[in-house]
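User: Predict the structure for this protein chain, please.
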Amino acid sequence: MSYPAQTSRPRHHGFTLIEMLVVLAVAAALLVIGMPALRDLLVRNQFASVSNEFTGLVASARSNAIKSNRSITLCRAASSTATACDNSADNQSQAWAYWLIIASDNTIVGQGAIPYADGGNVTLTSANIRFNAAGNLARDLPAQPTVGSDKQCRTMSLYRSGTIYPKTASGACS
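Assistant: Here is the predicted structure, written as structure tokens:
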């Protein structure tokens, strides 16, 4: 008696539905675990960027004072098109959204906007920072500039010599 020759079924190469669902479930779990850490990293980088921008503005104003051998003022402006500093008493502790660099003869050396970082902004209890021709602060500042919100705080130390150093603080600005 002879038996018919057995033919083997062709094997399909690929993933089953269950294998795909397991991979998707593991990927979703990893994403849920990693998102808060990624969000915190992005916020810290945004705050670092804003404080670096402000540090660069201070350095630019100081450099202009030394280069031009005249007094230079970095100040808060009321708008992006302002041609004068916003020195009103009501605005002494408000956020710096726009800035001007003005020479002692009232010519505008530079102007622009400070980037906004996740609810944070640059605050300073003085409306301006003035450098003399030697690049030193023309007067002592009453407080340190800060970039902050209810989530993050970066304080900067501004020294009489005109140098500025950012410092990081944990938590919200007080």
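The mean pLDDT is 79.
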